[in-house]
Structure formats: C-alpha cells, structure tokens
Amino acid sequence: MEPIIEVKNLVKVFHSRGRKITAVNDVSFDVFKGEIFGMIGPNGAGKSTTFSMLTTLIKPTSGSIRVAGFDVDKQDDKIRPLIGIVPQKLSLYPLLTARENLELMGNLYNVPKTDMEVKIDYYLKLVGLEASADRYTGGFSGGMKQRLSVIAAVLHDPQILFWDEPSTGLDPQTRNVIWKLARKFNEEGKTLVFTTHYMEEADNLCDRVAVMDSGKMVALDNPERLKETTVSTNLEEVFVHFTGEEVRD
C-alpha cells in the first residue's frame, strides 16, 4: 500500500518557564492512502501535538513529516489545499448563517461559485441541515455545529481529512451521524486521520490505531489485533483493553 503520510523520528519540544517539555518523543509511522487512521491516548499523550504538526499548524523540533509527498517543514503551502481539518474547537461565525459560513470557507479555498452552491446544497441535505441553511449558527446545538464544520472541511474536496475528537460532547444519535459521514468520505477515496478518547470509536472506524502515551507511540496495529494483544499494565491504563470505556485522563 502507498503511504500518503510519512512520519519519521518526530520530536516536538516546548520550553516553558525555564522547563523543557518533550511533548512528542521520537515517533515514526505511516498512514496509507485510503485508510482510516486513529490516534488514541490520554490527555498529555502527545496526540494533539502530533495532529497539529501533521496539519502544518506547528513545526517539528526534529524529525520529518511528508504529506502527499510534500515536506511539512518546507512545503506547507502545497499541503494546505490538499487537507481538510475539523478542529475540536469549532471555528464557525455565529452571526453568519450556515450557508454563509460555508460560502466563506469555499471562497477561502477558491471553490468555483457554480460548484460551491451545488456542493453546499448537497452536503447540507446529506447531514440533515437543509432546513437550517439560513439560520444563524450562533443558535445551533453542538451536534449541528459539528456537522456544519465537517462540511466546511470537505467543501474543497481534500485528499486527507483530519478530525480532532469527532465525538466529544455529542449525543449518541449525532455521534452515529458523524461516524456515517466518516465512512462515506472514506468510501469516496479520502484518507481520514483522527484523534479520539473513545475506544468504541477507534474500534468501529479505524483500519489501524496508534496508541500514544507520554509522548511516545506504545502500540500500532488494527483494532482486532490490539484487542488480542497481552499488554503491559501501563498500556492497559491507556486503552483499557478496548472495553469501550472512555480513556481516562
């Protein structure tokens, strides 16, 4: 299989009040084209920092990342049009309607106007928001905002969709809608990379899962093999043997 993301010996060090904090410590992995890849671990494990480096938001201290063949450190301008990001803290404009938010995002990515209107109507219907297209998003529920943010991330047809904590704070019904969207985008050929605290989510969606703890990758495999693996006490604390429990902070 062809890797679309290549990560080698990745390190990220922060300096705070005279202290040196190694948030990511010598992490290496590949993400293959067309797969759903998950990163799981407790708060402070390094997954969010890794996510930020993969999406060009912060630079590595050392090591390398290549996304779709481009170097994150030197060619971030080539990478950004190829990726879509659904952040944990959703960045919608509350005084704009759902449609206006999407039009703004489409314009930022230079989506042709004729294509954009068709796509917006299609995706709003797909996620069940067509009746709310002209409502201000400040009055949306958390689940509605999450669905709208997903549309905003895929409007320019990215190759790779990065998704930070897809199900956090969502009710079970909305979570299932989000999972169906993830599978649909994957069936359309997109590669998905997401972080999660939920083993049920990783187990249901992922082709492979990277388990992170204390800045290191402590396991990487498909969910079935990870569930069958006898793990150390420390690793048990990280993913609780895939029992479906939320990973504890």
Write the layout of secondary structure elements.
Elements: E1 3-16, E2 19-32, E3 36-40, H1 47-54, E4 62-67, E5 70-71, H2 76-79, E6 83-86, H3 98-108, H4 113-126, H5 142-154, E7 160-164, H6 172-187, E8 191-196, H7 199-205, E9 208-213, E10 216-221, H8 223-228, H9 233-239
What attributes does this structure have?
249 residues; alpha/beta; Rossmann fold; six-stranded mixed sheet; four-stranded antiparallel sheet; 35% helix; 27% strand; disordered C terminus
Describe this structure in words.
- The protein is of the alpha/beta class and 249 residues long.
- The protein has a single domain, classed as P-loop containing nucleotide triphosphate hydrolases (Rossmann fold, 3-Layer(aba) Sandwich), CATH 3.40.50.300.
- The protein is built from 9 helices and 10 strands.
- Strands 6-7-8-3-9-10 form a 6-stranded mixed sheet, with helices on both faces. The chain has a 4-stranded antiparallel sheet with strand order 2-1-4-5.
- Helix 3 packs across helix 4, helix 3 runs parallel beside helix 5 and helix 5 runs parallel beside helix 6.
- It starts with a strand and ends in a 10-residue tail after the last helix.
- The C terminus is likely disordered.
Largest sheet report: 6 strands, mixed
Tell me the helix content: 25-40%
Evaluate the radius of gyration. 18 Å
N/C terminus separation: 35 Å
- CATH fold-level assignment: Rossmann fold
Spatial order of the strands forming the largest sheet: 6-7-8-3-9-10
Strand content: 25-35%
List low-confidence stretches: 230-237, 240-249
CATH architecture: 3-Layer(aba) Sandwich
Number of domains: 1
CATH level-4 homologous superfamily: P-loop containing nucleotide triphosphate hydrolases
Overall 3D form = globular
Secondary-structure element string: EEEHEEHEHHHEHEHEEHH
